């Protein structure tokens, strides 16, 4: 039976009415969740390389978004969703007291699973875990009195049943960074004896850099997590000028977890070259047109050039722009990089803001590469070390 034109019109109007009401019935949290998901779906640069099923993520968390009734619940939902990206370079501009501390900026201990044991593989020098007396090599059995395996589930991606080593390492780093509202209690076994430590979580130092003359041949400059502060440029110039006659220079980037900006990075590297040279490659997806945009970033010489031997120290707390400087010096062929693998923070980030709740967030929208084509996050130091202690010993050997 054919429907009359009037009947068809009535059905069409009813359908449109129900659809519009369904849209308007969405809470501000549902609207913002879909905006959040869509921004990452369109602009996140690593969905494919990380094998993230982002549609599955929408399916899981959109159902939870329907139940959100307040801002705190929504922030928690967004934090859980970001865990699906399993990398420390994606974060919100706001947090709760119960929120996890950001990594690697607020972490101070590197725990790795070795067969069925969790071992301390590295410590952040001068920070809580180190100062509390924890030692590299100790076996960790409990975190805040609870088994580690059970707690990792909170940070592992839910879009898959298979969890890669990188996913597990992300979960471990997040767990041991702790939350803002609780003291950390770490239980270890050493020489058969059970011990408990309560490391304090310290903020980053205010000092932009530290420098000194180690001996008649060697100068030392340590950047203190200030690569995002343009005032560092002048301070670095003063430090380098005072060390310009030294045969060797050690540039310590082991304490740069929060990254920075390329202006500071290019200013630092510019003191070590005498001509314009490339230091990193950018890649950006133009998804609307199924094309990719590539460009090379260069370093230009500035002020008096340091001509001696340069040794760059890196580690698990060398992040983002610190990683960029390390691969840059390597690409410029102006330094020997010494240390452990770096933080492995993905790409260059961009900032976004949700329409309804005004919550800001950031994630990587560009992929970054060494001039030789290696992804920045996969770069391995020329002199590879196991931890900060070995890195410092190697630095002494090559510089002295």
From TrEMBL:
<dbReference type="Pfam" id="PF14684">
    <property type="entry name" value="Tricorn_C1"/>
</dbReference>
<dbReference type="InterPro" id="IPR029045">
    <property type="entry name" value="ClpP/crotonase-like_dom_sf"/>
</dbReference>
<dbReference type="InterPro" id="IPR028204">
    <property type="entry name" value="Tricorn_C1"/>
</dbReference>
<dbReference type="Pfam" id="PF03572">
    <property type="entry name" value="Peptidase_S41"/>
</dbReference>
<dbReference type="InterPro" id="IPR005151">
    <property type="entry name" value="Tail-specific_protease"/>
</dbReference>
<keyword id="KW-0732">Signal</keyword>
<dbReference type="GO" id="GO:0006508">
    <property type="term" value="P:proteolysis"/>
</dbReference>
<protein>
    <submittedName>
        <fullName>Peptidase</fullName>
    </submittedName>
</protein>
<feature type="domain" description="Tail specific protease">
    <location>
        <begin position="181"/>
        <end position="386"/>
    </location>
</feature>
<feature type="signal peptide">
    <location>
        <begin position="1"/>
        <end position="25"/>
    </location>
</feature>
<dbReference type="GO" id="GO:0008236">
    <property type="term" value="F:serine-type peptidase activity"/>
</dbReference>
């Amino acid at each position: 039976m054919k429907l009359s034109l009037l009947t068809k019109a009535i059905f069409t109007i009813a359908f449109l009415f129900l659809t519009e009401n369904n849209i308007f019935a969405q809470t501000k949290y549902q609207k913002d969740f879909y905006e959040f998901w869509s921004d990452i779906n369109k602009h996140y640069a690593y969905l494919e390389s990380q094998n993230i099923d982002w549609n599955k993520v929408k399916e899981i968390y959109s159902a939870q978004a329907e139940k959100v009734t307040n801002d705190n619940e929504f922030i928690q939902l967004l934090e859980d969703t970001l865990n699906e990206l399993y990398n420390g370079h994606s974060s919100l501009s706001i947090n709760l007291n119960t929120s996890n501390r950001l990594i690697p900026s607020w972490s101070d201990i590197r725990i790795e699973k070795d067969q069925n044991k969790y071992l301390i593989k590295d410590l952040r020098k001068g920070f809580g875990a180190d100062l509390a007396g924890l030692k590299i090599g100790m076996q960790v059995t409990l975190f805040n009195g609870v088994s580690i395996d059970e707690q990792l589930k909170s940070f592992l991606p839910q879009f898959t049943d298979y969890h890669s080593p990188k996913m597990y390492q992300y979960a471990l780093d997040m767990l041991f960074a702790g939350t803002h509202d609780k003291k950390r209690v770490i239980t270890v076994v050493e020489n058969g004896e059970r011990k408990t430590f309560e490391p304090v979580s310290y903020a980053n130092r205010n000092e932009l850099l530290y420098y000194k003359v180690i001996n008649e041949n060697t100068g030392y400059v340590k950047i203190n997590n200030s690569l995002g502060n343009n005032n560092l440029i002048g301070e670095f110039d003063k430090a380098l000028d005072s060390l310009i006659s030294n045969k060797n220079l050690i540039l310590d980037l082991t304490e740069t977890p929060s990254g920075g900006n390329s202006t500071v990075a290019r200013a630092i590297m510019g003191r070590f070259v005498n001509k314009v040279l490339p230091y990193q490659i950018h890649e950006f997806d133009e998804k609307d047109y199924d094309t990719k945009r590539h460009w090379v970033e260069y370093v230009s010489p500035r002020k008096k050039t340091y001509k001696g031997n340069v040794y760059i120290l890196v580690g698990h707390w060398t992040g983002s722009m610190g990683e960029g400087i390390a691969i840059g010096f390597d690409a410029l062929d102006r330094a020997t990089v010494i240390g452990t693998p770096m933080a492995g923070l993905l790409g260059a980030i961009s900032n976004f803001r949700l329409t309804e709740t005004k919550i800001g967030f950031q994630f990587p929208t560009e992929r970054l590469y060494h001039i030789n084509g290696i992804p920045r996050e996969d770069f391995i130091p020329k002199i590879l070390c196991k931890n900060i202690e070995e890195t410092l010993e190697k630095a002494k050997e090559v510089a002295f």
